[in-house]
Amino acid sequence: MREVVIVSGCRTAVGKRKGALSGIRAEDLAATILKDVMDRVSLQKELVEDVILGCVTQVGEQAGNIARTAALIAGFPDHVPGVTIDRQCGSSQQAVHFAAQAIASGDMDIVIAGGVESMTRAPMFSNVGDIKPSKGLTDKYEIVNQGISAEKIADHWGFSREQLDSFSLQSHENALNAMESGYFKQEITPLDIINEGGEKLKFSTDEGPRKNTTLAALAELNAVFKENGKITAGNASQISDGASAVLLMSAEKAKELGMKAKARIIARTVVGSDPTFMLTGPIAATEKVLKRAGLTLNDMDRYEVNEAFAPVPLAWLEETGANPEKLNVNGGAIALGHPLGATGTKLLVSLMHELDRVEGRYGLLAVCEGMGMANATIIERLEQ
Hints:
Elements: E1 4-11, E2 15-16, H1 26-39, E3 50-54, H2 66-73, E4 82-85, H3 91-105, E5 110-118, H4 135-138, H5 146-157, H6 161-180, E6 191-194, E7 200-203, H7 215-219, E8 240-250, H8 251-257, E9 263-272, H9 281-293, E10 300-305, H10 311-320, H11 333-336, H12 343-358, E11 362-369, E12 373-381
Family: Belongs to the thiolase-like superfamily. Thiolase family.
Pfam family, one: Thiolase_N
Protein name: Thiolase family protein
C-alpha cells in the first residue's frame, strides 16, 4: 500500500447561524475553499482526480452533488469529477478516508477531500421533513434525538451539570486564547462578505467564541431536551456555517511534483456504536485506530474529539484515560461551532497546524456521528 500525505489544508472561519456567512450559497462557499487549497501550493487543477466532499443536509442549494457543482464553480476542468457523501458529523473525515484509500490502493494520485455545511440556508433535518423512522428500526432500537443521547451519556457516566458547563467554559477560553494568539490565522481562508449595512468586509475570524461566557451565565441556561436535564445551548455544539478541505497525494507524486508534505495518514478507521447512546463511538474508534497504527494514546501529542455535546469528550476522556491537557487545546465545537459536513476536515486542518506549532509528531482525530458511528484518524506531522 502506498503512503498517503497531506500537502495543503484550509478552512473558512466558522460563521454563526444567520451570521456572517449566511448570505453565501453553500456551493460558492465550498468553491472558495477548493480554490484556495490548490492555490496554497500552486497546483494545476487539472491534476486532481476526484473531489470528495461531506455534506449532511443535502437539500436545496446543498443538493444535486455539491462536490461537483462547487468544483465547477471553482474553475476545475470538467474532467475532474466530484462526489458528495453523508456520514453525518464525520462526513468530511470520511471523505479523507475514502480519498486516502483511493491513493493508497493506486487508483488515484491526487484527491481533494473536504466538506461544507450552511446550517443557516439548509437547516438541520430539512432533508428529512416530517418523515418518522421506520417501524422496522424502532422495533429493534430506541431511536432518540442526539440531545437525548447526550443526556443519557451524562447520566450513565454520572456527569453533573456543573462538570458539563465547566468543560464548555474551558472550550470558550481555549478558543479565545487561540484566536488572540493568532493560532488560526494561517489555516483560515479570508472571505469577502457584505454585512447588513452593505459594507464589504473580509471575514476571517470564527464567530462562535463568547468573551462574556462564565459559569454563572451557563448555569442560568435552561435544559433543551429534557425537563430538569443537563444539556443546554451552552454545553452543546453551535449551529454553524463553514467549509474546509485538504489536498492529499501519494508520497511519490508529492515528491515528483516537488511538493512538501505537511503530514502523513498513519491509520484510519470507522466503527458502528449503540444507536441510542449514539455519540460514544469515538471511544471504540480510538481503541481500534491506535491498534491499527501500533501506537498508544501516550504517543499522541494532541487529540481532537469533536464536542458535539460536552458529555462526549468527557466520556471519551474517562474511558480512554487520555491526558485532558492534550484534548481540544484550542477550543472545540462548543465554542467554535460545528458546520456538520465540514467539521471533520476543519478539525484535521487545525490539528495539523497545532502539531506544527508545538512541533509535535502524532495527532488523533475522532468524531461521533448520528445513528451511532464514529471515524478516527491518526496523522504524523512531517518536518518542514
